[in-house]
Every structure is written in structure tokens, then in C-alpha cells.
Amino acid sequence: MDFSINLVRGLVDVLQRLGVAPDFYFKQAGFDSLRLENPAGRVCESEYDRLQQVALNLSNTPSLGIEMAKHSPQGTFGVLAYLVLNCSTWREAIRMTSRFYRLVCDYEAPVLEIGETHSRLIYSFSKSNLEINRLRSEFGLTRLALIAKAFQSNDDHDLSIGFCHVRPRYMEKYSEWLPCNIEFNQDVYFLKFSNSLLDKKQPFADPEVATILKEQAESMLSSLQGYSGRLGESVKALIRQKYIGRKPDLESVASYFHLSGRSLRRKLQEEGTTFGALADEVMSAVAQQALKDPELCIKEVAYRMGFSEPSSFHRAFKRWTGTTPQEWRRDHQAGATPEARVETKTAGLEKA
């Protein structure tokens, strides 16, 4: 079970509105804020539980779920949020939510139940303790209700929400942010509405934008669904992005994938590779790309790669490729400047 890093960003935005500093929050939650830099990042269930529990404690706001639903930016739900708002009907919006819900979290999407006069959107979520369950239900259902209201326009489609928990002390927040009927102590969490809402045209929908967003969502979903089978590729991408200029280490890389170093090593072995081999592959490719630049001398390439001495880079590069940096440049850089050719020849004599 995992969740999009965008949900964490949205939570941080709301906490700032409530006076909680991000740095302090991340420290209390034991969370590396650098992980927010990866737009495709995910957090595991235990991490998400802790992030939300610490947020509840620090904000001292029992109605945090409603605050999140009202004030989280659209980007909290990634491309899916913009796609839904450009769907032509509420029925289509529900269908797109079901199709791409995995982009938001690895859990069952809301399920549509159509009755004779009314329909219900059954909402499920990953269960934790009572506080977090209430937060998640309020966050999800309030957000769904606000989206449904956008499709509802000024017409009355008999909107109501059902919660499994008891009536809370902060009932005024419900009245303030939820312009619909509210029921507690229900068997399931749901959003209920008149069937007439399903096919009501959304006046602000843009079909061309929706098509573009759907293509983007399909691409993202394809990448996400193939993620577990391409861990090695993901590791290489992370090393290329984060670790050029400093030596990548197993434990810090593993933490980005919510794994221990031992687990990452085992999973890579199952794919027929090792962490060291992947790191060498990336470092070799980056070094070769740098050597193609005739304006960079070998020493500068070595320093950019994180080597304190050119001799260390020379040994590593020969281990990666079977040849020296000077020999590789001579063989692959036909357009090298005269200065680079002199450097290659001189360095070769020095190594002889």
C-alpha cells in the first residue's frame, strides 16, 4: 500500500496555514523533506499514518480532514484532479477517477452504486486508528462533495454524505464546509446524489484539455504499474538525478524506495543485478557524456564526478570501460580541440 507524495505536499500546505512550520513538522515526523522533490515519489502506509498522526498532534485541529479538503491545492491529487474537472459529466468524472485512482493511492477507487432514483459513491480508504480514519473519511468525502457541487451548478440534486463515525464535537465545521445533508453512524462511507446529476453537462469542461490530461494520466499509470518490475531502472534514475558528484550509498538510495538496504539488495538480485553494478553503469555513462565535451579537461571531469584525484577517476573509468579516459576520448571525440588532443597525448605518456 502506498500513496502519492503529492498528498504529503497538500498536507504540508494546510499545516502552514494552521501555523505549523514545515521543517519542524518533518523533524517531528522523521521524514526527509528532500523526498518531496521527486514528483513521482510515493510514501508507504506506515509513513503516511505517521505523517497524518503528527499533523493532527501538531495542528491541534480535530477537523484537519475537512481543512485539507477545503484548502489543499488541486495539485494534491496530481493530474487526476485537473482531468476530473474537465470531464463533460459527473458520470465521466467518476469513471476517470476509477481508472486513474492508482495515481493518488494504492487502494480501491470509489465504487458507483446506481439505484432507481439515487446513486451512491461508496468511499473506501486504508484504515488506521479512529483519529486517522475520521481524518481520511472527512478529507476524501468532503473533497468529493465539493467536486460534485461543481457539476451540480445551481441545480438541486439532493446531495448527502454518510460517515461511519459518530457525530463529532466540531459539527460547525461540517455545516460551514459541507453544503449538503450529513448522516453519521452509517455502515459505509458514501456520497449520495440524485441520478439526474450523473449525466448533467459540466459547463466549464474542456474536451481538448481532457484528452491531453487523459493521455498524460495513461502514461503515468503505465509507468507506475511497471514500477515494481523495473526497480533497477528506478535506482539508476535516482542515482543519475541525486548522486552525481558524490558517491551513492546503498542505505540512502534504499530509503527513497521505502526499503532497507538489505531489502533493496535482495530485490535487485531478483532482477539479476546489484547496486554496485547499477551505480557503476550510471557513473560510467555520465563520465562518457562529460568526456564528449571538448571544453572539459580530464581533471575537471574527475572533480565533477566527485573524485578528489584524477588518478582515482582514471582507475574507476578503466574498471568501468576497460580503457582510460584519455583513450576513450581519443576514440570517441573526433571533433576534439587541439588542446584536448595535446592533453590526451600528454596524459597517455604520463600514464605509460
From TrEMBL:
Residues 324-352 are annotated as: Disordered. Residues 340-352 have a biased composition (Basic and acidic residues). Keywords: DNA-binding, Transcription, Transcription regulation. GO terms for cellular component: cytosol. Residues 233-331 form the HTH araC/xylS-type domain. SMART domains: HTH_ARAC. Gene3D superfamilies: Homeodomain-like. The keyword Transcription regulation applies. GO terms for molecular function: DNA-binding transcription factor activity; transcription cis-regulatory region binding. Pfam families: Arabinose_bd (PF12625), HTH_18 (PF12833). This is HTH araC/xylS-type domain-containing protein. It comes from Pelagibaculum spongiae.
